[in-house]
Amino acid sequence: MCRAARMAGSRMKLELSRVVQGRGRLGVLKELGKTGQCSLEVPGCLLHTHLGTVPHLTQETLRTLSNLPSVTQVTLSNIAEHQEVLEEFKDGVTKFAGLHDTVLYCSLHDPATPCPTGYTTNKTVSVWGSGGRIELTVAKFMALQKTVQPDWYQSMADGETWLNNTSRKRVRKSVDRTLAHLDECLLVHQQSQELEGVEVFGVVEGGDILEERVRSSRETAKRPVAGFCLDGLQTGSMDQALRTQLITAVTKELPEDKPRLLQGVGRPDEVLACVEAGVDLFESFFPFQVTERGCALSFSFDISLDPELAVLELDEERGTSGETQQNGDLNPDDQSLMTSFEINLKDQRYKDDFRPLVEGCVCYCCQNHQRAYLHHLLVTNELLAGVLLMIHNTAHYHAFFSALREALANDKLDVLKTRVLGESGGRQKDLTDTDKSE
Amino acid sequence: LLSVKTESKALSPLALRVVAECPVTKARACDLTLPHCAVSTPVFMPVGTQGTLKGITVDQLEGLGCQICLGNTYHLGMRPGPDLIEKANGLHGFMNWKRNLLTDSGGFQMVSLVELSEVTEEGVKFKSPYDGKEILLSPEKSISIQNSLGSDIMMQLDDVVSSTVSGPRVEEAMHRSIRWLDRCIAANKNSDKQNLFAIIQGGLNAELRKVCLDEMTQRDVPGFAIGGLSGGEEKNDFWRMVTLSTDHLPREKPRYLMGVGYAVDLVVCVALGCDMFDCVFPTRTARFGSALVPWGSLQVKQKQYAKDFQPIDPECQCHTCKKHSRAYLHALFKSDTAAMHHITVHNIAYQLSLMRSVRRSIVEGCFPEFIRTFMKRLFPSRDLYPGWAVDALASVNVTLE
């Protein structure tokens, strides 16, 4: 047990500067990476990538963005099919992808792409690559980690509990299997010289059943892991009220000094609620999803604005959208649905709108291009649309997290929530009001 | 007389200075001054059909050293339309490209893309693919759209006939193109800012081409394109028409060979006296994973590159080659569009670098040697040299051993 603790224990240190029960934690996750040089502010998010590439972006276009997270996320769903190549390459995914100065985190699934269910067994989980399903035993999972050479990874887990009406029995199985997988992973980990210095996160399961969530948390917390992934709570699996309740119960059982990473949740309203419930880290796949539907993040998180002006601005964007503000709460299959945090640039109204995507945004897209141009690119199916939208959406999203941390530091979380969510949660605006305000 | 000539040059939106001429071939290296910036020729112009260069930002394009690229009048005329682009400060303003733009007339798309209704003296009648409405593209309409686009170089509307067609239709089209040139010249509202190029037609018929050349060179246009070629005709006929054309085009005006972009074709046609080229090939083929290299091309998506940890071209200076291996790009093609962008960047870099090397060798007086080295690198053996290229080069005194 002691040996395991030394080899798979925590070198990363979570330094919290503020902890307020029910209001979230603020701090820095330090000594990340094998060199221990990197840090990540929390609450924060990881940089979501496909095989080390931020979707649509080459390093040249990525470099137009500043203040990106120091931790890059790759997923086994993109990597598994390249195991042979990586084995021959020998130097790990970071080098393979031409990345430098980044901490690499390896997750199991890609949060942006829900995968088919029904293929998980007692001993295996499956990921879907470009060529189809790849089945992973713990042995294969760990072999993959050795070729990926991440700085940190989540242990193998069974999180197939997000479907409606998952039986209690099934949920219990997912908790049991996940713990078994964790123990096996740790065993292999401590015996692998290649994984020395690499950190492991345990995965908390339990579906929507409180007792199972508590059980999973308690048990996982007993293992020598560096932090915790919260699984099976992704957008679309349950409403936020239940999610908050479950996360609150879970974090009560977890040690304060270890980070909590929530998987599959990225919408700004959900992020805010989950931060309050005690989550430290998120995956940043949401900007990609917004990009894929031809939309641009436009919600405001600027709390320095005159509140009256702020409300008018907010209403102008929301009220004239004429689209339902569903936000896809309870429908995991409809994550392609636009949310109230974005504008749909395919809409005719943007055809001759020569303003930037978001006034005041300093990203390359907003500094160089207009809504009318983006509209044109989308209507004509041009590849540049994805590039420009990804740049903007990434910049906007990470700036939101920055604002979130600042709000926490200055005790202004409520103000931020109002700003982001709107006074009445995004009501439709009367068109005559728009005329008056002009 | 001299002072009048100089004065008109200063007012003209185009000036060509021949920097060097190859003493052996008909190649020239020139400095072409256009409204937005200077262009070094010989030049390859990447094609950004719909006001974008396929996944590459304007900053990236500028960074690659591109001084002029193409926009397409037919496509942009359909979507988003000339009125909107005019509101956006022209195509330059709309796509935020600060250097030069060349727009074609829309004529070629008539032949290649659209259900052709009718070609009459008036213009080309066709059905819009978006709403089925009948549209007439006349010389006046084409120039009007191009005036709205504000391109630095505009092309006349020509009566385009496929190069595989022969007979009276070719002659009819050639004569009509001359008449349409005159109508285009008359219709150009911005002759002080936008250059209208004529397009020499005549198919593969030397006599017809000669007639066209004689007539069109009498018009006061700032430049000439050689059209009606690169459409699937025999290469042996192709090069003969190119060299015939450059023989009869004025020295002090640029010669633009339309639709040519394969490396061999570029090098040979520079030797035959052409200055400017455009082609969708390099950027289109990139999206299929085909990377252009001095020894041919490399299909990155093929299995053999899965474990190849070299860059596409170890000597290439582009970002793709400096950062990534063939193996990584091969893998990336399975998960993200960025793989296409990497290859697009590389292919543009390849084309522009090739032209820079060609220019340098002309300026340094060693173009024939350059040609020989180039051919040796591209083809594994002498008997694989394309016959037409050997003949074409021989016609300008370059023998390949």
TrEMBL record, chain A:
Residues 24-421 form the tRNA-guanine(15) transglycosylase-like domain. One of its GO terms (biological process) is tRNA modification. InterPro entries: QTRTD1, Queuine_tRNA-ribosyltrfase, TGT-like_sf, tRNA_ribo_trans-like. It is found in: Cytoplasm; Mitochondrion outer membrane. It comes from the Eukaryota. It is a peripheral membrane protein. Keywords: Cytoplasm, Membrane, Metal-binding, Mitochondrion, Mitochondrion outer membrane, tRNA processing, Zinc. One of its GO terms (cellular component) is mitochondrial outer membrane. The keyword tRNA processing applies. Its cofactor is Zn(2+). Binds 1 zinc ion per subunit. Zn(2+) binds at residues 361, 363, 366, 392. One of its GO terms (molecular function) is metal ion binding. HAMAP family: QTRT2 (MF_03043). Belongs to the queuine tRNA-ribosyltransferase family. QTRT2 subfamily. Heterodimer of a catalytic subunit QTRT1 and an accessory subunit QTRT2. Non-catalytic subunit of the queuine tRNA-ribosyltransferase (TGT) that catalyzes the base-exchange of a guanine (G) residue with queuine (Q) at position 34 (anticodon wobble position) in tRNAs with GU(N) anticodons (tRNA-Asp, -Asn, -His and -Tyr), resulting in the hypermodified nucleoside queuosine (7-(((4,5-cis-dihydroxy-2-cyclopenten-1-yl)amino)methyl)-7-deazaguanosine). This is Queuine tRNA-ribosyltransferase accessory subunit 2.
UniProtKB/TrEMBL annotation, chain B:
Zn(2+) binds at residues 316, 318, 321, 346. Signal peptide: none annotated. Its main location: cytoplasm. PANTHER family: QUEUINE TRNA-RIBOSYLTRANSFERASE CATALYTIC SUBUNIT 1. The keyword Transport does not apply. It is a peripheral membrane protein. It catalyses: guanosine(34) in tRNA + queuine = queuosine(34) in tRNA + guanine. The active site is at residues 104, 278. Its cofactor is Zn(2+). Heterodimer of a catalytic subunit QTRT1 and an accessory subunit QTRT2. GO terms for cellular component: cytosol; mitochondrial outer membrane. It is an enzyme of class 2 (transferase). This is Queuine tRNA-ribosyltransferase catalytic subunit 1. GO terms for molecular function: metal ion binding; tRNA-guanosine(34) queuine transglycosylase activity. Catalytic subunit of the queuine tRNA-ribosyltransferase (TGT) that catalyzes the base-exchange of a guanine (G) residue with queuine (Q) at position 34 (anticodon wobble position) in tRNAs with GU(N) anticodons (tRNA-Asp, -Asn, -His and -Tyr), resulting in the hypermodified nucleoside queuosine (7-(((4,5-cis-dihydroxy-2-cyclopenten-1-yl)amino)methyl)-7-deazaguanosine). Catalysis occurs through a double-displacement mechanism. The nucleophile active site attacks the C1' of nucleotide 34 to detach the guanine base from the RNA, forming a covalent enzyme-RNA intermediate. Keywords: Cytoplasm, Glycosyltransferase, Membrane, Metal-binding, Mitochondrion, Mitochondrion outer membrane, Transferase, tRNA processing, Zinc. Gene3D superfamilies: Queuine tRNA-ribosyltransferase-like. Belongs to the queuine tRNA-ribosyltransferase family. Pfam families: TGT. Its EC number is 2.4.2.64. Residues 259-265, 283-287 are annotated as: RNA binding. Substrate binds at residues 104-108, 158, 201, 228.
